[in-house]
Amino acid sequence: MDNNELENPPGPARRSPGRPRKKSTNLEESTEGQKPVDESLNDRQRELLRLVIQEFVVTAAPVSSEAIVAKYRLPYSSATVRNEMAELERQGYITQPHTSAGRIPSDLGYRYYVERLMVRPGNLSPLEQHTIQHQFYQIQLELNEWLRLAASVTAHTSHNAALVSTPRVYDSRLKYLQLLSVQERLALIVLVSRDGTIREQMTALDQPQSQDDLTTISNRLNTLLKDFNWKKMEERIKDWPDDSSRTMAQKVIDTLRLLDQSQAAQIYRDGLANILSQPEFSDIERVRQVIQVIENGQAITNIIPEVLSNEGQAVQVIIGGDNRFDDLRSLSVVLARYGIDGQVAGVVGVVGPTRMEYGRSISTVQYISHLLSGLINDRRG
Amino acid sequence: MDNNELENPPGPARRSPGRPRKKSTNLEESTEGQKPVDESLNDRQRELLRLVIQEFVVTAAPVSSEAIVAKYRLPYSSATVRNEMAELERQGYITQPHTSAGRIPSDLGYRYYVERLMVRPGNLSPLEQHTIQHQFYQIQLELNEWLRLAASVTAHTSHNAALVSTPRVYDSRLKYLQLLSVQERLALIVLVSRDGTIREQMTALDQPQSQDDLTTISNRLNTLLKDFNWKKMEERIKDWPDDSSRTMAQKVIDTLRLLDQSQAAQIYRDGLANILSQPEFSDIERVRQVIQVIENGQAITNIIPEVLSNEGQAVQVIIGGDNRFDDLRSLSVVLARYGIDGQVAGVVGVVGPTRMEYGRSISTVQYISHLLSGLINDRRG
DNA sequence: TTTAGCACTAAATATTAGAGAGTGCTAAAA
DNA sequence: TTTTAGCACTCTCTAATATTTAGTGCTAAA
Predict the structure, then answer these.
(1) Count of CB contacts below 8 A, A vs B?
(2) Pick from A96, A164, A191, B269: most CB atoms within 10 A?
(3) pTM score, whole prediction
(4) What is d(CA B302, CA B305) in angstroms, rounded to the nearest whole number?
(5) pLDDT tens digit string along B21-39?
(6) CA of B99, closest CA in chain A: separation in Å?
(7) Contacts of A156 in chain B (CB under 8 A)
(8) Closest to A284 (Cβ–Cβ): which among B190, B202, B284?
(9) Cα(A350)–Cα(A363) distance, rounded to whole angstroms?
């Protein structure tokens, strides 16, 4: 109940809508690691904002001036803190659920924290890294099992919900294909692309063909089409005679193109239970919303291609939907790409309340994406 | 809040623990379709029980004598109904949340309803069947995409949460294998079993081998091991010379055995949001429990192999955990097997509150399992 | 055997009072 | 000029109490 206001950011935050973008730009201009100069907040205000957020992340209750002074033994009184808080509120970094309550961070506050105040997220502890690696390398797994595991581990490590998208392959090239007779007029195309993806496709035959016929065809196609992507293949077969080899080649092309294009990223999810035990989800209606969003929401599906195309940034943090994804108000999403630049790419992400441990989430997705990239790399030749 | 008592079945239901089993036996003995004779409930009582349950399933609120008489224009007064209800309660089929409330069905009541009172669930309407078929046959899909779709459709059709397990294959037989060089000392085994399952397995090589070497080996293995299951293969290779073919054969055997055995059924889930909008989940704590159970609970994983081994029954209904699955108190599960007897088998199921439309759930899993069985059958040769 | 009538019970809802938490402001102190 | 003690003020939270409502079980008559 304390957090109702998170959903409807109060006046002050709205009054300066241009601010977050500007801040973000500042960060990019300043050298990383150096403390950026800020015109509007002095050191003490920044420090207090940091403390308010840290405290709120842990307690989930509005943070009072008194409490913060006592807990951190600040060298000034609660009255001073109140004055500074008033200024922080005026600038939209924190808000009050009601007059006589403490302060809670606004989305803008979180943004500022993530970009400028947070202790830079380091790596996961060696112990955690080791535990995770152990799980990954323990058994030989298929790709989808890796991804499922990745989602599970990410959720567990970040203490939030996690999502992992299947990697999308651009420009698949044929490594090997095999045709298998299923019935007289039904064949199975098995197609291995150079990045190790396997695609099977059942296909009807115009005329009955034996396994021997099919083997002959597949041998020919293997020789002629190997290492090509579907566009190259299409050029190549243009002047072929109109025989069964060509018909089959066309089907292979279609399958390969399908692999490239229609490839709707499947999304593995896990850890929903983690975030629902957070106090912000004591309201059942919010729980339903969140489940809708995570289970099959548009927002998630919309974000992913965006992250994939966004080649620059290593980790992307979307706070409270950032005014773009309405379903995600009150949720934050931390996303990292994995894969091989320009060839294979997927997304690993953490979803949780805006009040999340951003540092931990960032470390987690960084590490897991690193791990997945390694695995993908191993799978290729 | 009305339904608190569902979780802790009150006295009467406990007093006659042998009853449900006995009933179930009776049903099996009696000819299907014929109205079974019952010593303890007269026609009017049965009719009233049916009405109470039907009403409760729709309204989710305790059913009062007055309401039921008015709504169904019963030819007797509410006082009479009250008398009969008292008897139904004494026998444990219904309970009162508190003294001055209406009646709600107990698990025992639901059981009785499902086995003896329910209008026998027919098929889904032709329109629904058509819609579903349309979704299934619209595009060529891979197995896991079929299953994902099946979960989604089941959830949507049953208005509850759905789960679909990956089919487990007993006794896989090799249809075709291919070895692909990935790096000098790293190869990919691609293995197609006769039922159309494809398994890929990366393997390290003792000594560098070219693609040509690997092709030679795979040709030999294809000829010698085709159509065998892993046990047969092991016999077969017993007296082979200890060369690279044999080493590879052993790896193929291991992979095939893995396919048969370790094959932990993956479970596709969908429609969690459906059941959480039900009024029984207005209590956040219950929501959390349910999500735990459905997302990664033991109960589900325990039930599935049980259903698979239970070859007789077409559809299995577990009500409120049936005193065996504690996590499932207040939930019911409707399960059907799909696949081909003795060869491939998976499970499709509906999970919802005990107050669910059993008829619809049963029709849905029946139809979907039928459809999946067909698809599996098509995939084989 | 059925039913009208009614006392009784327990929950749900509304009302009120009081306590608690934390602020903003003022005026004095540093 | 900045900081801080003091205090009035605001709003929520909790508990206690009364009121309403729904629906029963029982009795006695039909």
Answers:
(1) 93
(2) A164
(3) 0.81
(4) 6
(5) 333 322 232 333 334 445 5
(6) 28
(7) none
(8) B284
(9) 11
